[in-house]
Amino acid sequence: MLRMVVFDFDGVIADCENAHFRAFRKVFLDQGIELTWEQYCVRYLGLTDYECIAQILADNGRPIYGKKKQIKELFLRKKAEFAHYLNKKDLIMPGVEQLLEGLCANNIICSICSGALRCEIDVILQQGRLQDFFEVIISADDVSRGKPDPEGYRLSIARINENAIIQPRIQPSECVVIEDSIWGIRAGQAAGMRCVAVTTTYQAEQLAGAEMIVKDLTCLDSDRLREVLK
């Protein structure tokens, strides 16, 4: 039985990946590092901002040990660049509100598990008036390890199950994850959940391993998501 759907955020609920890339690219150009979209997708998409910054520096021969202050400064600059972009754009992906309304009408719990910052998630959800659909939001601020580690997805269930009203406790086998990257698919499956992949960021062949692959959220409803658990 489907009791809970856990959404990734960037590339699933909101079209943020290009904005993240542009912010990272601008920050690193000032460091003499030119980041391409292909590099970002292959190597860095899916990492938290701190992980991404540290990895880009390491990949370009910049030592990161003892450089926590520099990494934090780059993180704050990237955060500011991204926030500036958010103020100009409506980033909600097609089909999001309709799917959330259908899930809630069927008493299926909705939550978010994302490597994005909580402040960024909140701003975009408020812009789209979607914040009330989600019982729990797990962001980069809540975990010590980003995807493909399953920490975030396990924490999603744990937070829901802390609510004594929800009985019996939700099991991973009763949850479906919606993701747009192989890192997210691996994280959800490692947490014992089934995964639906959307081809909003990667091609279908790059998302092999997901139980279902669709174009975007307009292709999904409660019945199709229940099929994933059969």
Strand order of the largest sheet: 3-2-1-4-5-6
Order of helices and strands: EHHHHHEHEHEHEEH
Unreliable segments of 5+ consecutive residues: none
What is the count of distinct domains?
Answer: 2
> By helix and strand content, what is the structural category?
alpha/beta
Q: What proportion of the residues is helical, as a percent range?
A: 40-55%
Report on the biggest sheet: 6 strands, parallel
Q: State mean pLDDT (0 to 100 scale).
A: 92
The number of distinct helices, counting runs of at least 4 residues, comes to 9
What is the H level of CATH, i.e. the homologous superfamily of the largest domain? HAD superfamily/HAD-like
CA-based shape:
globular
As a whole number of angstroms, the C-alpha radius of gyration is 17 Å
